[in-house]
Design brief:
By secondary structure, the chain is of the alpha+beta class. Among the domains are: 11-45; 81-132, no CATH class. It is built from four helices and four strands. It has helices at residues 27-32, 88-96, 101-113, 121-132, and strands at 11-15, 22-26, 35-37, 43-45. The longest helix has 13 residues, at 101-113. Bound molecules: zinc ion.
Length: 133
């Protein structure tokens, strides 16, 4: 909450009807002083002003922007168990080499994690088999 003004000072600007000179009056002056004299000698006859209706419209404070959300770093995720379904041939191949199924799956996951699978299942199986040697 910032400070709010208790009072508003307006400047009232009048123009001399004779010479056009500007005459500035404060809020206090326009409330009590009815008469004035222009530099040109013209008597100025003011209507007294009681006050000004209107209210202060505050600028809305800029809301602080949303907190920067740390960008999730997408770490390469090893395929889940279900994703290994298509690697059944590779699992079989490893099992024939003496791996237990879980070991075979783990080996395949690791190989996938390393990006060893390029879409060619035979090459992938060969990679797995060669890796064993
Ligand atoms: Zn004047």
């Amino acid at each position: 909450m910032g400070l709010k003004p208790k009072r508003v000072e307006h400047d009232f600007v009048y123009f001399c009807p004779k010479c056009g000179n500007e005459t500035w009056r404060t809020m206090r002056e326009v409330q009590v002083i009815e008469k004035g004299v222009c530099e040109c000698g013209q008597i100025l006859d003011f209507d007294l002003i009681e006050g000004i209706k209107g209210k202060v419209v505050y600028k809305k404070k800029a809301k602080p922007g949303p907190k920067a959300i740390p960008v999730a770093v997408t770490a390469p995720v090893a395929p889940k168990k279900a994703d290994l379904a298509e690697f059944e041939p590779a699992i079989d191949a490893l099992m024939t080499l003496g791996f237990k199924k879980l070991e075979a799956m783990k080996k395949i996951k690791n190989a996938l994690h390393d990006g060893a699978y390029g879409g060619d299942m035979d090459a992938f199986i060969e990679h797995l088999v060669m890796e064993r040697v």
